């Protein structure tokens, strides 16, 4: 069995990236009007929509409400057409439940929930197209949607995958093609400014010798993503600001 | 960080699925030229001083190659003649997809700085990328990309000239019309001024086409037809195996079919070469035939004459049509899915004409057809062993076309023949590289205090080693001493090779690649450099060495009470031979600690052996011979069956025990990735010849379990034929499957079983100097006792499996190479000798009898008739498997006397010719030679009783 090399002899990955390069990220805040916050994010060909409602009063079972913090409710779903083989994906299947829980874990680490006792924040994420790195794209999109909703965050929460190419070279932001061919994938969600890891998941075991360098790569990926998200947020604020008339002051503030 | 490139989606449409992948185009790809100021520089081997001297071009130039040139003309590229070559990534990928071996060879050329090759990633370059058009075939698309890259280079580096070499006429024409300078390989190479010798190495694809010779072979189906045929189950994908004995017969192994499929004659084989992956079609059942069991050799001389082939084919047909009894599924090859051509050793046909440029090449491997080559140095090559590669086999050509690669040396020389044996068995035998040698410890090697700290000091214990005479790579030593409570402490100490060979180092990779030390008669190809194999790792007498010890506490009945493993320092008191050890045991006057230790070991070994046999372990036999060499001339001076002592078996028992103990330990620690060794139970059909042979003489050989087989083999003894039992065991050995290494995660637990040894778990621990598997096992064991750390590949099941496959392959090849070397030296010994020898019938064939000569461990064929003719003396009875002449009937196992001589007519395949001496048959047999010297000789060697050949210690059968 000849295992395909993920990085060619000239240092390029199958899609032409180098080991440390992310896929192209394009994102937009405020794509919907109805939710309190929303965002659309493309990471390579993986496309995700996120919508945030709240904070609002706890709906349904009121006993869940907490006196010292808001409860965060996440729901993950995948569109029927999101993968190459079309199949119906029931909302509550194991995979999406797990994804929802992981998503919640990452977001809880960033949201200042203590500011909203007795209330609830709902985050909905829908994957329009899956091409590897679905979870990170969801986290990144949800972060943007939360910012759009104006919910206070400690800092950005970003996620990124990393893996090993040719059993030796760590590489970042794994595409679907690389996921299939390659070895184990490490997914990390982190608060990139403080460097705190809030979630870490491995598709298979890594050998202990490899883990630190792969983790480093993933964290670097989170930091790079944060830079891109930050830029998008500033651009968005500028756009919204200039159209609503206080563009001048923000212009001044920046200079 | 990310300089975002404009990107284009690449569509890849499968059946219904639509895959979309990203394809990034970059602006930071280096063109490879130092003089360039526009690109961001990176590493490149292109040289501004190298000059390509081709008389077609009056200027220096850089070369861009097309894919077909690399696939077909790698032998030219391997020569250090042309340099400054730009390999486009498009081309590199295509080569990789089409042929992995070629890709590997190309890679090694690219990586060699002195060859000045550079890989240019044109497919990710923003100015060289072209989108594929919808109706465009992938080949046309690639050609277009290559031409685009040529044009780009011409534009980008205006100071340099570029030459595009391709053998694809259409592509060349198009390139020329786009003003790209373009030539064919042949034109280019023939005009190179310094390398006329390269011409012979040009691959030939269509030389002297004879159109009138149509219908020599049926045409092959296209890939598309094959694909559909397989999908509709009309055709089957199979691996083609040519017959060694009959060049007009072959077999195809189809996955999921129990029987192999017989392929006969020109139309059946249809240009398949041994090892090829082919598409076959089954014939209607009424056309099925039986294997001929005939021995046919291709004897035609001229490459054009067909008569010989036609005659033999007819002969084959008449034979196979007559026997309707054992028809086998029969089919024919309709297409080739993948060629598995490699380079072949062999000689030029000896009676060819020196003046012709076309020569027939006769491969040493009889399974490979003759190959037609073009050379202008036939006279010089005639006396040489040479290497040839196949290039093509068009359907109008009787033989495949090929080209000369290199000469190995004079035919019949020891060194040439060794080289041939090594090459034919794919044994890596280059000198160890500088990089590997740099991993060796510096001399003088001293044991430091830390070493002593980390190990158990056993230097005070009386340990000794027992090995064959002249053994320099001693990897095991033993001790046994009584302890306080009346029990015995037994220790097996194995050379601590993994201390010196650290994972991932050059020396480790090299050893993993070699997998095993290969023993030829007068040459040993080491797995690790000699400093380790014969010195630092070898547990020599009187020297302090590192060992990995397995220590048992046993009671006097050889029950294991306690097992422990640790790394240790030992000082072997003596390195003994089997014979010395035997004498020490037998000498009643010796009561020193070594003698006591050996006696105790021997006593325990006997119990262990008995217990093992009771469990159903098989005692198999294969005649193993030892060739005595004249130490000065290196010519064989005698051939004899190896002598065995009780001590052989003693050492073997403890090695088995250590291996089993270690297997249990590492499996417990690493359920998923322990390297073990299994020996699968053979399918019952394998035993048919054995059962037949046994039944014939009134013995019921039961094969339902290994235990029953062992019992029935033990019972099959005939007083009138003392060698009978050994012969049965030789037959039984041939029914067995190969034992293989595997990582425990790849099989179910009940499949771990070792059939031959009748143990549920087994591994190899005791010979790390000469087997790589043992090094892995040492590492696993070291981790499980906390003496060493793991590393990623050790725990990767898939990686281990990959490694195991290589180990299994190399071991098999090493075994074959060893046998081939013995065969050659036996021949050398017999040159010019004629002797009468006693032998036994092993098999009865239609036109021949297979005879085993125990004295030399030889198996030869006694032909009863000229090939294809019916014997004038013998009558073949297929039912009872005998040959009769009057009232003399020959069965399997009957003793005979034969005259042995060497037939050197075919210098590549010297073979023994037998003539029957007794039983005497008027007109067929020859009178006995009166040679008193022979009796003398028998007494000299002292082997009056038939030697019982058993497993030697260094056997690789377990
Ligand atoms: Zn350039």
Automatic annotation (TrEMBL), chain A:
GO molecular function terms noted in the UniProt entry: RNA binding
GO cellular component labels: cytoplasmic exosome (RNase complex); nuclear exosome (RNase complex); nucleolus
Ranges for domain Exoribonuclease phosphorolytic: 21-152, 156-220
Presence of keyword Cytoplasm: yes
Chief localisation class: cytoplasm
Membrane-spanning residues: none
Pfam families recorded: RNase_PH, RNase_PH_C
GO biological process: nuclear mRNA surveillance; poly(A)-dependent snoRNA 3'-end processing; rRNA catabolic process; U4 snRNA 3'-end processing
Domain of life: Eukaryota
Record's subcellular location: Cytoplasm; Nucleus, Nucleolus
Listed InterPro entries: ExoRNase_PH_dom1, ExoRNase_PH_dom2, ExoRNase_PH_dom2_sf, PNPase/RNase_PH_dom_sf, Ribosomal_Su5_D2-typ_SF, RNase_PH
Keywords, alphabetical: Cytoplasm, Exosome
Family: Belongs to the RNase PH family.
Functional summary from the UniProt entry: Non-catalytic component of the RNA exosome complex which has 3'->5' exoribonuclease activity and participates in a multitude of cellular RNA processing and degradation events.
Subunit-structure text: Component of the RNA exosome complex.
Protein name, entry field: Putative exosome complex component RRP41
Upper lineage: Eukaryota, Metazoa, Ecdysozoa, Arthropoda, Hexapoda
Automatic annotation (TrEMBL), chain B:
Annotated GO MF terms: 3'-5'-RNA exonuclease activity; endonuclease activity; enzyme binding; RNA binding
Domain PIN per the UniProt entry, residue ranges: 61-173
Region (Disordered): 926-958
Keyword RNA-binding carried by entry: yes
Recorded GO CC terms: cytoplasmic exosome (RNase complex); nuclear exosome (RNase complex)
Cofactor (UniProt): Mg(2+)
Primary site of residence: cytoplasm
Compartment(s) where it occurs, according to its Swiss-Prot or TrEMBL record: Cytoplasm; Nucleus
SUPFAM superfamilies: Nucleic acid-binding proteins, PIN domain-like
Biological process, per Gene Ontology: nuclear mRNA surveillance of mRNA 3'-end processing; rRNA catabolic process; rRNA processing
The entry's keywords: Cytoplasm, Exonuclease, Exosome, Hydrolase, Nuclease, Nucleus, RNA-binding, rRNA processing
Pfam families, A to Z: OB_Dis3, PIN_4, RNB, Rrp44_CSD1, Rrp44_S1
Matching InterPro entries: Dis3_CSD2, NA-bd_OB-fold, PIN-like_dom_sf, PIN_dom, RNase_II/R, RNase_II/R_CS, RNR_Ribonuclease, Rrp44_CSD1
RNB domain span: 455-787
SMART domains in UniProt: PINc, RNB
Family statement drawn from the similarity comment of this UniProt entry: Belongs to the RNR ribonuclease family.
PANTHER family in UniProt: EXOSOME COMPLEX EXONUCLEASE RRP44, RIBONUCLEASE
Protein name: Protein DIS3 homolog
Record organism: Ignelater luminosus (Cucubano)
